[in-house]
Design a protein that fits this description.
It is a single chain. By secondary structure, the chain is mostly beta strands. It is built from one helix and 26 strands. The two termini are about 15 Å apart.
Amino acid sequence: MRASLLVLAVFVGSSLALVCQEIDGRLTQIDVSNGQVFGVNSGNSIYTRYGNSWVQLPGALKHVTVGPAGVWGVDTEYFIYKLVGGRWVQIPGLLKQIDAGGDLFVSGVNMQDNIFCLNRNATVTTRGGESCIPWNLLPGALKYYSCGPYSCWGVNSADQIFVMKGVTPDACMGSKAWEQVPGALSMIEVSTDGSVYGVNSAKDVYRRDGVSAANPAGTGWTYLSMCGKSKHVSYDLGVLWVISLEEKILTCS
């Protein structure tokens, strides 16, 4: 595996410089959970990481997600797919971005920034072929939405940040009351352990501190310094996976 040391890790106030290594391959989007890594490239090819190698999966997606709810994705026509028994099956609905990080439920947003989630029973049992499934429509409008074990986070078209508390496997809509969080991000990801990371319009990466089941909104943001600018991030098992503007793949800690 090709690797290059980029920066040294030091704390500087509310900022932290990370140690990052570049690995082989090029991707436009990546998602990681419980040791699994999935991503797509500029040609919409789908890959998963096995050891130190990328393995291409059949099909074509523009966004892929992995989490407790399984492996899901959406294609360039906004059709939704779930990986079942090693093959992609189409699921009723249309989304531009989808997230499987919730506790056995999926969520996402459509082309009009409407926000949807699917409770545990439907998420787990759907295997494609249904004429319809019970998507829940949340209030508000977001361009990106991601869920973890006890909260969901999203950003809207103005890069404002919101958190939804009280989410559970059988009540994925949570409290239905958005809490705005100070700051501005263009994308945001919640990890399987509840950690929150995001990228702003300047392509800088931030981590939300103090996030817990008792305080899902956290306490503040830490700027994560690294060599170059970033377009997408995902966190799992102590490692932040970063896609650079040049579509390089970095693992940082």
